[in-house]
Write a structure and sequence with these properties.
alpha/beta, seven-stranded mixed beta sheet, disordered N terminus, disordered C terminus
């Protein structure tokens, strides 16, 4: 089943969107790593008990650390796609190496996959990850068959869809629809593309998965009171879509969604890994400086740590 996507222009609110909420959270960039990441992802020195640390793994991948919890979202840490598309129009060669080898991962509590595309549900990451970890895999129920084929053990699989609520060892995951570039459901009404609102350490983070704006999205997220949005900014065009590469938000659309949904912080992703499907991060920063003057935002660097903490007005966020 496929649901057509309305014109994004028509989905914008008629009245001026609300500004950022008064929730007192802040995203602080940590110093550049002096050595390669370890697979255990220890929190940086000085991190508080209530803080959550994020590492951008490249593409849509993140690691989240809070206390003993280590959650991975859409980790792509292999060269599976380069092998698959060698000699093709889009060869999927990495522009930067994976910040950590999947076989080095330790202590992973959960792995969240937003959909079945290989850079979000990667057999080259899943198989070696399982050498030393037994995480719960939260995956769209509509992609169960593909997940099992990619190596997710049946006893570790948790299928879900929009509107449900999943709890994994104290971490709450609330799936919402994602439109990549359209909303799609299977014959049972389960969504093939999801975003996740993850509640950990008292913070609520929205990872959209691969997504473009759709009607009702801002209202849905406003009701969920999101503190930080992890949104793709590589955009879309007819050439990529016509050659099998559906697109995502632009930086402008990501900022507009945050403003309309009252989300105070934006952290961008899904750029810089494949040369045919990226944007210049400096252009993204310039766009956000022009258009997101009331929004706190971060354009991250692969492998760097970012700490989600309670706001300290004397500390300025690094962008």
């Amino acid at each position: 089943m496929q649901c057509s996507l309305p014109n994004p222009e028509a989905a914008r609110p008629a009245s001026p969107p609300p500004g950022p909420s008064d929730r007192t959270v802040q995203v602080l960039a940590q110093p550049a790593p002096q050595s390669p990441l370890t697979g255990a992802f220890p929190a940086p020195a000085g991190t508080g008990d209530r803080d959550v640390t994020l590492w951008w793994l490249g593409q849509a991948g993140f690691a989240l650390r809070h206390g003993r919890h280590l959650v991975l979202i859409d980790p792509y840490l292999s060269d599976t796609l380069a092998q698959k598309y060698r000699g093709k129009l889009f060869p999927h060669r990495r522009m930067h190496p994976a910040p950590v080898a999947p076989e080095d991962l330790r202590g992973v509590t959960a792995v969240l996959c937003t959909h079945g595309h290989t850079d979000h549900m990667d057999p080259g990451t899943i198989h070696p990850l399982l050498l030393h970890n037994r995480p719960r895999f939260v995956v769209p129920r509509a992609e169960r068959t593909r997940a099992l084929e990619r190596g997710v053990p049946a006893d570790l699989f948790t299928g879900t869809t929009a509107g449900e609520r999943v709890e994994v060892d104290g971490i709450v995951v609330e799936p919402v629809p994602a439109a990549h570039e359209r909303l799609e459901q299977d014959e049972h009404g389960d969504h093939r593309f999801l975003g996740y609102v993850v509640t950990v350490g008292g913070f609520r983070m929205y990872h959209s998965g691969d997504c473009v704006p759709y009607a009702g999205q801002a209202e849905l997220l406003r009701d969920l009171r999101v503190d930080l949005a992890l949104l793709p900014v590589n955009g879309r065009d007819a050439y990529r879509t016509g050659n099998g590469v559906p697109g995502n938000f632009t930086a402008r659309e990501a900022a507009e969604l945050c403003a309309a949904a009252g989300i105070p912080h934006l952290l961008c992703h899904h750029f810089g890994l494949f040369d045919f499907n990226t944007v210049d991060p400096e252009d993204t920063r310039a766009e956000l400086r022009r258009r997101a003057t009331r929004l706190s935002w971060t354009v991250p660097r692969p492998g760097h740590a970012y700490v989600l903490t309670h706001a300290n007005p004397s500390v300025r966020e690094a962008r």
